[in-house]
Amino acid sequence: MKIALAQLNYHIGNFEGNLHKMLRAIEEARRQGADLICFGELAVCGYPPRDFLEFDDFIQRCQASVQALREVSGGIGIVVGAPTRNPVVEGKDLYNSAYFLYEGEVIGVQHKALLPTYDIFDEYRYFEPASAFRPVAFKGYKIALTICEDIWNVGNDNPLYTICPLDEMRPYQPDLILNLSASPFHYGQASERLRIIRANVERYGIPMFYVNHVGAQTDLIFDGGSVVMSPNGQVFDEMPYFKETLRTYSLEEVLRGGRQCQQSKEKIPLIHDALILGIRDYFDKLRFSKAILGLSGGIDSAVTCTLAVEALGAENVRGLLMPGPFSSEHSLTDARQLAERLGISYDIVPISGVYEAFLHALEPLFAHQPFNITEENIQARIRGTLLMAMSNKFGHILLNTSNKSEMAVGYGTLYGDMCGGLAVLGDVYKTEVYALANYLNTLPIGRYSQRGVIPENSILKPPSAELRPNQKDSDNLPEYDVLDPLLFHYIEGRRGPRELVQMGFDEALVARVLRMVNTNEFKREQAAPVLRVSPKSFGMGRRMPIVGKYLS
Fold this sequence. Notes:
Elements: E1 2-7, H1 15-31, E2 36-38, H2 56-70, E3 77-85, E4 94-102, E5 105-111, E6 136-138, E7 141-147, H3 165-169, E8 176-180, H4 189-204, E9 208-211, E10 214-217, E11 220-223, E12 227-229, E13 235-238, E14 245-250, H5 251-256, H6 267-286, E15 291-294, H7 299-312, E16 317-321, H8 329-342, E17 345-348, H9 352-366, H10 373-394, E18 397-400, H11 404-409, E19 422-423, H12 430-440, H13 456-460, H14 480-491, H15 497-502, H16 507-519, H17 521-525
Parallel strand pairs: 1-2, 2-3, 7-8, 8-9, 15-16, 15-18, 16-17, 18-19
Antiparallel strand pairs: 1-14, 3-4, 4-5, 6-7, 9-12, 10-11, 12-13
Helix pairs in contact: 1-2, 6-7, 6-12, 7-8, 7-12, 9-10
């Protein structure tokens, strides 16, 4: 038997587009001699559909797509994810299901049992868990259908769940496992995915064919990396990351083992590729093509701009240089040099005159109060207003350039440098931004024939917002090589203050930094969507009260 895995980039709610992709994949699988083709979790509608699932018309259109696939299942089995209605009044209205279609018939339906409700997931909001488990018979084989999280409780070792779907199917002695996934990317997920697949294969002694989504759905990025694993626990094949792919495998060859094809899992290259896909899909799926951003000469805007050029093309990226009263000459030079190396269009709009006009208008109200953060924020908000004006006038999406370190401690101005439609680096700590810049400088990008598109001075100079004379970030924040590990252990590691002190962090520093993180929750509530590349990003996966007193 030959099994095709279709690792596709779906678009939530784009039923016609998703169906068209699957129909093309079916035809290609036929050409490759496949007996069976497998698509991802909720492939007909895209994942995660969230509250679209509460619309009756949305479910009807999902079922119409399943029917269309059923009509082309002559001579080839089709396994596809879709929501189905729960006929029982008690419980949730829907199941998250895998359909097995063949010769115009539905020969099997398996519902998802393990419904994740943590971090970015909220499936129990919509779906009823499965209570029945039985493999599907196809061409002399018994196939265990599982959906994503269903394989993440190996032998009931996951305390989140009380049932193991494959243990329930074990008495039927299935010959292989098909897993339909929609598993979002973070930089450690690929290694963890292989560990879980191997644990299942070794427990049950049968091969697994695991198909994942690829593509970005706003903040969530899906990396693909679909896996075929032989019964001996060896990776038979791992599909490319961040790329649509269809491959057909001989079950007999997989059973014999061998081949060993795996992708690199280096952190910074993975983050780079994820951000490129995240930017590109955000624009494509919203049907926008042009981006604008502020270029300050600093590292964050340089990295954001370079990523945007890779994702969208230099002709679709525009920079705005807005020197103010405290901007250094080298910052303007660095920003211009980057724009010219990348080959993007750019404009220079000095803001000193606008800034002075603001101060003049506010002078009677401020009553000669001393210069402080208020005046600094005015500069940032002038720049934000200019960028939003350009965005509105020309139909560009404004890319926000704030990094995760800044977002964490509130080192950004609402309605100023926090403006934007998409936060490209909002899940990348400052130290990682530098690593990303160095990686980008190993690649030939834009018009620059040499490697090293980001000016060296943008990387080497002390980071500064340049909102007052001789300002440096370290005037207000700990050095980033100290700050970032502390933030990581608090945000990703969920370590409390006492634990952080026990780890060796200074007690006064811990109190200061955690206070900054928690009192700036209101800013993050108003921030642009953040492309998720870490295990714990700012967004729907991190839900904190704005007025909570813990650690304050």
